[in-house]
Design a protein that fits this description.
- It comes from marine sediment metagenome.
- Its cofactor is Zn(2+).
- This is PDZ domain-containing protein.
- Keywords: Hydrolase, Membrane, Metalloprotease, Protease, Transmembrane, Transmembrane helix, Zinc.
- This protein folds into 3 domains: about 1-100, no CATH class; about 115-215, Roll (Pdz3 Domain), CATH 2.30.42.10; about 215-280, no CATH class.
- The chain has 7 helices and 8 strands.
- The protein has helices at about 1-30, 85-110, 130-135, 155-165, 215-245, 255-265, 270-280, and strands at about 35-50, 55-70, 115-125, 145, 150, 170-175, 180-185, 200-215.
- The strands form 2 sheets. Strands 3, 4, 5, 6, 7 and 8 form a 6-stranded antiparallel sheet that branches. The chain has a two-stranded antiparallel ribbon with strand order 1-2.
- A hairpin with a 5-residue loop joins β6 and β7 (about 180-185).
- α1 crosses α2, α1 crosses α6 (about 255-265) and α2 (about 85-110) crosses α5.
- The longest helix has 28 residues, at about 1-30.
- The chain is elongated.
Length: about 280
């Protein structure tokens, strides 16, 4: 329970802090007077004044604020309302922009932090009749080696690459039980029959091993960018799946998100960073 509460508050604080820093930095850069920069909502626990700004920590942790002078009164000196339309738009939208950029940072750090990855061979156990897999000749006992030249090292890889390419033809390299390899073209379905999945295969992992991975920053940053792009694609595909009725909507409130955060935190810092990036 303690891990769940602490990890949830830390994740929320990072996301809120990034958002409010966007407003704060652009306001300061535009010479708008910032009266208070607060993490959490009042009542105030304590505050420190530096220059013209009060930096406060408040009792209600779900939120934050950047209080600027004269947000609606242009007569106040150095007020937000006294600035031009472009400056006001920049300051007000900077929080959302920071939340869009935060995942890039978090994903990159997640790749740099040493973390455990379970790898092995993804083996086909069953093939659904008349499914895309059946139509291209995939059979039980085949091993899925790569998808669009990306190695399939675990079931998570297969699921991710599949859902990134719903409705599009992909190249799937398979190894048959007699050790021969074959590359087939397959189109994962948007709306498969219940229990079949996009390709129509039931898989398991064999020869599992756990390896320790981390990347230097010059590789982690490009991978972080790629992860951000793929996350947006997954969001888009999830929304389209809801529209066409392929999946049902499951809504999690703050308690549900906190529980998920606690479960992810138990897996390590790297997965927690990825989860925070996803929430952002």
């Amino acid at each position: 329970m303690l891990i769940t509460i602490v990890s949830f508050l830390v994740v929320i604080a990072v996301i809120i802090l990034a958002h409010e820093l966007g407003h704060f930095i652009t306001a300061k850069a535009s010479r708008v007077k910032v009266e208070e920069f607060g993490l959490g909502y009042p009542p105030r626990l304590f505050g420190i004044k530096r220059g013209e700004t009060l930096y406060s920590l408040n009792a209600i942790p779900i939120g934050g604020f950047t209080k600027m002078a004269g947000e609606e009164d242009p007569k106040i000196k150095r007020s937000l309302a006294s600035k031009g339309r472009g400056i006001r738009l920049l300051v007000l939208s900077a929080g959302s922009l920071m939340n869009a950029l935060l995942p890039l940072l978090l994903f990159s750090i997640a790749f740099m932090v040493p973390h455990n990855v379970v790898v092995g061979q993804v083996l086909v156990e069953e093939v659904a009749p008349n499914s895309p897999a059946a139509m291209v000749g995939i059979e039980p006992g085949d091993t899925l080696v790569s998808l669009n030249e990306k190695p399939v090292q675990n079931i998570s890889n297969l699921q991710r690459y599949t859902y990134l390419n719903l409705g599009r033809e992909v190249s799937l390299l398979i190894q048959h039980s007699d050790a021969t390899t074959e590359e087939v073209q397959i189109i994962p379905r948007w709306k498969p029959p219940e229990g079949q999945g996009a390709m129509g295969v039931l898989v398991s992992m064999t020869n599992q091993t756990t390896i320790r991975q981390h990347e230097p920053f010059w590789r982690a940053i490009p991978q972080g960018i790629g992860e951000c792009i793929e996350t947006f694609v997954l969001f888009k595909n999830a929304i389209l799946s809801l529209i066409i009725g392929a999946t049902s909507m499951e809504i999690a409130g703050p308690v549900g998100i906190a529980q998920m955060t606690g479960e992810v935190a138990k897996a390590g810092i790297s997965p927690l960073l990825e989860f925070a990036a996803f929430l952002s």
